[in-house]
User: Which sequence fits this backbone?
């Protein structure tokens, strides 16, 4: 993949993210202002802030997006579905859900598929996109492949590396493995621990079609 990108082109790969539990309304507004300044793909926040973000981004090309089952993935399916629907009704354009990590590691692929499928159906019924966070720091290569395959079987639009709240974030090798597994059928989002333009471009070269970053200003200013 060509990684000779202008700053404006790179910005459209970025989901400008503020998922800090102590973020205030002022912090979230600042995140939106930064995203609009650079014309990023989106602003990714916890669902409480979606109404504020949707209003702040009105009339721009930057999308409000949110997370579901975050950051552990262990909430029940009905709760994840409700979270997703409510967030979309509040203005979210994309949903990043956390896979049930324990069931994936335990090899309960039928549960994993059903869990994702329920959220995918609800999200797609609203005409929106679903990304599935695998939390790759907990997984070996076989489990990463299984998570990608389960996500595709369940109708997800993207697979995503990490929440940014675990022991490690995105790794180039994991992104490459995810892209190899899903081919061009799904998007791949790398997130967590991407702090520089060089790191961002390496993820894109490995196959990422979207990046979740909080260091957007640093990445695009250099």
Assistant:
């Amino acid at each position: 993949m060509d990684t000779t990108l202008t700053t404006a082109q790179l910005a459209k790969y970025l989901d400008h993210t503020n998922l800090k539990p102590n973020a205030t309304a002022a912090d979230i507004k600042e995140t939106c202002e930064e995203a609009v300044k650079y014309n990023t793909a989106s602003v990714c926040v916890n669902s409480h802030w979606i109404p504020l973000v949707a209003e702040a981004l009105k009339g721009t090309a930057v999308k409000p997006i949110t997370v579901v089952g975050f950051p552990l993935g262990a909430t029940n399916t009905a709760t994840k579905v409700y979270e997703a629907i409510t967030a979309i009704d509040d203005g979210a354009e994309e949903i990043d859900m956390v896979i049930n990590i324990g069931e994936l590691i335990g090899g309960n692929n039928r549960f994993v598929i059903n869990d994702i499928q329920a959220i995918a159906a609800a999200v797609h019924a609203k005409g929106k996109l679903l990304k599935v966070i695998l939390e790759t720091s907990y997984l070996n290569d076989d489990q990463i492949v299984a998570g990608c395959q389960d996500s595709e079987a369940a109708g997800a639009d993207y697979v995503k590396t990490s929440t940014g709240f675990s022991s490690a974030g995105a790794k180039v090798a994991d992104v490459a493995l995810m892209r190899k597994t899903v081919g061009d059928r799904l998007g791949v989002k790398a997130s967590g621990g991407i702090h520089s333009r060089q790191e961002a471009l390496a993820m894109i070269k490995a196959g990422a079609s979207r990046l979740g970053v909080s260091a957007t200003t640093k990445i695009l200013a250099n």
